[in-house]
């Protein structure tokens, strides 16, 4: 039962990633636009004050901010797409149609029963042109989940020759209609109390001092091995749980949307405290760099050079690209207690961000963080204090990790060459990884890398489903015994997580290359996953 529940949560977490993947890209362009229209920057670089340039970037800024004002539809489409095992585009279309039906039906019901307010606010808002009960991004997520589940169960439904036109994905749409109508009426009564509960939780987090921030930081790191950290992060970044604020006359929900809106608002003197929820970058840039340096320092003298080849790239990956798995999984697999300490330290430094009221808005690595905050100014973001606290965190991580590793003789790479589970990457492994992470020709991707992954996971009879998140290739397999972890290392894998019958192969931000390589290999060899 526990495995089923965790598996379901992992599937949901994986689906949430689909729409979330696009939001950092939107955020980065918004920051660039904000940089170009920032009065301080325009004063320093006069040609940017040209009317045409200002109009272009202001139009682009306002256009992209609309994404954060319409997260409900985006999540409805994205979650349904992410949950669907096949015919994903049909699931996405049905979810969007269902959202339209829900909004129109609930608006009609509220109007006919006299429950429709004269204006938005007080629990009601606009979505797709209809005034409805304000469920925000939760409505999109709920509809996405319902449509995704119905799609997986009935997308191949055969209604016979006479009714064949209504079979398959059209049948999914047909049975979704009454579900949407019932939901539209039910949520008119059920959601206001739920919204009150959500508001209470959000109020608790924002008014309970540093406890809420500590808890978020602690859980966001602790849940990484399960893949469920996306859930807690998304809840705070994109829903009411991360705060609600009115900026320049517009209402924004979620820590990420609020921070981006306030960065571009000249009237905002200081970013909201909810911005701190975005600051996972602190531990990625500073904390784990300190941990990596400690592990490198603890390597045996004879193995220093080999250890340096492992840890230096991992530290740079965490600091510059904000990809933490290479470092985190290095000590997670050999010392879960050390990973628990890492999670506690992350929570403590989230608390310190709150204690010192440091509202720096971060995303990605160190360069993105500077790009977001330096143009906005010190008073608004407090970015120099963020860096100072980060350097303190780096020192704390370094000394804590060094003490723990030496005290308990933790067999991290570089300390015990004979232990296969923590052995260093060999020259052969390194050369294979370097070869595979280079940009190969299409033929090489199809026939070499794809073949390697295919063989390492046990072949077509062992593959039940292929998917990916930010950094991991997720494959549901029939038998874990057929998975060859050593062969996966040769493909460039930085680690492997096993959860139930799902394996999560950690490749990093270029995970799509590896998924495409495997899928291209299957297609080229006319291999089809059972049920697809």
TrEMBL record:
Record localization: Cell membrane
GO cellular component entries: plasma membrane
Active site residues per record: 469
Main location group: membrane
Annotated TM spans: 12-37, 67-84, 91-110, 130-150, 171-191, 197-219, 309-327, 385-405
GO annotation terms (biological process): phosphoenolpyruvate-dependent sugar phosphotransferase system
CDD domains the UniProt entry points to: PTS_IIB_glc (cd00212)
Family matches, as InterPro entries: Glu_permease_IIB (IPR036878), PTrfase_EIIB_Cys (IPR018113), PTS_EIIC (IPR003352), PTS_EIIC_1 (IPR013013), PTS_Glucose_EIICBA (IPR050429), PTS_IIB_1 (IPR001996)
Residues annotated as domain PTS EIIB type-1: 447-528
Residues in PTS EIIC type-1 domain copies: 3-417
Keyword Transmembrane: yes
Key words, A-Z: Cell membrane, Kinase, Membrane, Phosphotransferase system, Sugar transport, Transferase, Transmembrane, Transmembrane helix, Transport
GO MF: kinase activity; protein-N(PI)-phosphohistidine-sugar phosphotransferase activity; protein-phosphocysteine-sugar phosphotransferase activity
Topological category with respect to the lipid bilayer: Multi-pass membrane protein
Protein name, as recorded: PTS transporter subunit EIIC
Origin species: [Eubacterium] hominis
Taxonomic lineage from the root: Bacteria, Bacillati, Bacillota, Erysipelotrichia, Erysipelotrichales
